[in-house]
Specification:
D-amino Acid Aminotransferase, Chain A, domain 1, single chain, Dna Ligase, domain 1, alpha+beta, binds adenosine-5'-diphosphate, about 675 residues, about 25% helix
Length: about 675
């Protein structure tokens, strides 16, 4: 077995590989970019080497630097994880040429499966059923037009070198073929350096079911059962499970035989995944991923095997000591991918500093796979996946319930995540009944889990009252009058109503609540109804009781932002000042900041302008989309800090405002 292994990756997968190495007594070497100096994978590894700048091309994708680091630190093998260099046949060959072992398949197998056209030709020749279509070498317009007529519409144009859903276009009618081809070729050339495409019949509402295979270098190839990854958004997996709830034992056996045949046809060695779409109960090969897959933990949970351990053993030349008949399925496992992304903005990646990271307790029925920790900056250089939670149970319903509980106790504060979205997807009866297809998530609009915004508002109000009390106490202390009636925060005023107003900006709407202190607690009026709220605990894990119902959540103050995280997800509020003269409250909101890094494409105001709440200040282009930064207060523009074309960081000051609106 190896003595020292270098992990050419980052994030959760690097951490996960390090854990298995540690258990096997193998030393680990982490490589990292300048952005990842403080990253968890670097802290966990026995040794760490800085290999370059934050941009992946200058670090994690630089094969030469990785190999140099492995040699310099005396590693005897390199594990590539997934993504980055994992499916780069030239890199695998260079690793071997440097006298090191690549923990993965032989370069020839990577190459054979690397392009969708060649892979499909090989698979068809080996008798593996493929999605009907055209995967020939002649990719001229005339030939593709003719093939498209033969295949029929709707059809799918795919980049032959593609991955991650890039360079893919659905074509409904013949008239749309030419523009779709042009767009797919452009995207493919930019992303993969090749504009070769294939055509496939577009299967209507299929399922995605993939086979995990494990092959040693001694002629044994095993089928480690399948995963169902039908819940996808934009052709990307969101929730994965094993085994597939769609297949019966006979279908499972058939799939296993086909997958083993596919792997054998390319002389496959190590762990790999053969992906199929199922339509009318029939499997159709789409591609093979010649590496460890993101969703491999669900297979590990139902087989009891550590895939990374077997990858290492096979790479070290060991023969598999068990056969197909020794493998059995144990229960059911489901995994959800937690991303730093904002479902309310079309799933744009969200950036920021993670103030709080709190995971559920890992156990034999719950895996928490992550590479982030509190204090980490989530930027745009890398994949926005923060973690995978994978739950196991004796049956699917139990695994699902455990996953929902686990997501419910997770707290991530500082970036917007898809946790609430995942909760509402998993709560959907169609998901629970497995009545879904690969386009289902896209067609079904998932709203925030019911109750989340209302609960979060109550908690934010409790925190706001606590904040005012803190401020009143501090003022009293400064005035040497800590116990006087003028400092009480219950709203008591001589000859006036005891009502207080709390204003919060929630996404693009303003929430106003009137809070009155009475004998039974706080009366909270949101315009629609009045509820009685007792504040049981008002810092950190805030607890309130609203009309007798207990609501708990974490409230984090982050400059002008108030994050509220409950079991159902997170809500981000922004304080809105009540009066211009209320300097303490108003100061933070007087500054319009960049919501994300981007470029200024329009400056709509000048110093001295009078503005209303909602007036457009600046247009920011980020992630290929325009964002409108608007005034959150009415008043006057004091200073414009940016100019047309400026590149700005997230949180950068754009416009300084003086609030001029009074309100109580
Ligand atoms: P990539 O390599 O870019 O991930 P794949 O070929 O693996 O692309 O396909 C990804 C997803 O796209 C599939 O899981 C499926 O949802 C959808 N898809 C791919 N091919 C077809 C097809 N012929 N018909 C319908 N959907 C497809």
């Amino acid at each position: 077995m190896f003595r020292r292994v270098l992990i050419a990756n980052r994030g959760e997968i690097a951490c996960r590989i390090i854990r298995t190495c540690r258990r096997l007594g193998i030393e680990t070497v982490a490589v990292h970019s300048t952005a990842d100096r403080g990253a968890l994978h670097v802290a966990l590894a026995d040794h760490a080497v800085l290999i370059g700048e934050a941009a992946p091309a200058l670090s994690y994708l630089d094969g030469e630097r990785v190999i140099e680091a492995a040699k310099a630190l005396g590693a005897d093998a390199i594990h590539p994880g997934y993504g980055f260099l994992s499916e780069n046949a030239d890199f695998a060959a260079a690793v071997a040429a440097a006298g090191l072992v690549f923990v993965g398949p032989p370069p020839a197998a990577i190459r054979a499966m690397g392009a969708k056209d060649e892979a499909k030709r090989l698979m068809a020749a080996a008798g593996v059923p493929c999605v009907p279509g055209y995967a020939g070498q002649d990719v001229g317009d005339a030939r593709l037009q003719a093939e498209a007529e033969r295949i029929g519409y709707p059809l799918l144009v795919k980049a032959a070198a593609g991955g991650g859903g890039k360079g893919m276009r659905v074509v409904e009618h013949a008239a749309d073929l030419a523009p779709a081809l042009a767009a797919a070729r452009r995207e493919a050339l930019a992303a993969f350096g090749s504009d070769r495409v294939i055509l496939e019949r577009y299967l209507e509402r299929p399922r995605h079911i993939e086979a995990q295979v494990l092959a040693d270098g001694h002629g044994r190839t095993l089928f480690l059962f399948e995963r169902e990854c039908t819940l996808q958004r934009r052709h990307q997996k969101v929730i994965e499970e094993a085994p597939s709830p769609t297949l019966d034992d006979a279908a499972r056996t058939t799939l296993g035989a086909v997958a083993v045949r596919a792997a054998a046809a390319v002389g496959y060695v190590n762990a790999g995944t053969v992906e199929f779409l199922y339509a009318d109960g029939q499997p159709y090969f789409i591609e093979m991923n010649t590496r460890l897959q993101v969703e491999h933990p669900v297979t590990e949970l139902v087989t009891g095997l550590d895939l990374v351990e077997w990858q290492l053993r096979i790479a070290a030349g060991e023969a598999l000591p068990f056969g197909q008949d020794d493998l059995a399925l144990d229960g059911h496992a489901i995994e959800a991918r937690l991303y730093a992304e904002d479902p309310s903005t079309g799933f744009l990646p969200s950036t920021g500093r993670l103030h709080v990271v709190r995971w559920p307790e890992p156990s034999p029925c719950l895996r928490v796979e992550t590479g982030v920790q509190a204090g980490d900056e989530v930027g745009l250089d890398y994949d926005p996946m923060l973690a995978k939670l994978a739950a196991h149970g004796p049956d699917r319903a139990t695994a699902l319930a455990r996953l929902r509980q686990a997501l419910g106790t997770t707290r991530l504060v500082g970036v917007t995540t898809n946790r609430g979205y995942l909760q509402s997807v998993l709560a959907d009866p169609a998901v629970q009944a497995n009545q879904v297809d690969t386009t289902w998530l896209e067609r079904k609009r998932h709203h925030p889990p019911p109750g989340l915004p209302a609960d979060a508002r109550r908690l934010a109000v409790a925190d706001r009252l606590a904040e005012r009390a803190e401020r009143a106490a501090a003022l009293a202390e400064a005035a040497g009058d800590a116990h006087g009636p003028w400092q009480a925060i219950d709203g008591f005023r001589l000859g006036r109503s005891a009502a207080q107003l709390v204003r919060l900006a929630e996404a693009d709407r303003l929430v106003e609540l009137t809070v009155t202190h009475g004998p039974a607690g706080w009366q909270v009026d949101d315009g629609d109804r009045t509820q009685v709220m007792q504040v049981l605990k008002s810092t950190g894990d805030t607890r309130v009781e609203v009309d007798g119902r207990r609501i708990t959540g974490l409230v984090v103050r982050d400059g002008p932002l108030r994050w509220v995280a409950t079991a159902r997800g997170e809500v981000r509020f922004r304080r809105v000042p009540l009066m211009a003269s209320d300097a303490d409250e108003g100061a933070a909101e007087g500054t319009a900041r960049a919501p994300m890094p981007g470029r200024i494409v329009e400056v709509a105001v000048a110093a001295g302008d009078t503005i209303e709440r909602g007036t457009l200040l600046v247009k920011l282009e980020a992630m290929k989309m325009e964002h409108h930064v608007v005034a959150e207060v009415a008043g006057r523009v004091c200073h414009v800090a940016v100019g047309l074309g400026d590149q700005v960081a997230a949180g950068a000051t754009l416009v300084e405002l003086a609030a001029g609106e009074g309100a109580t």
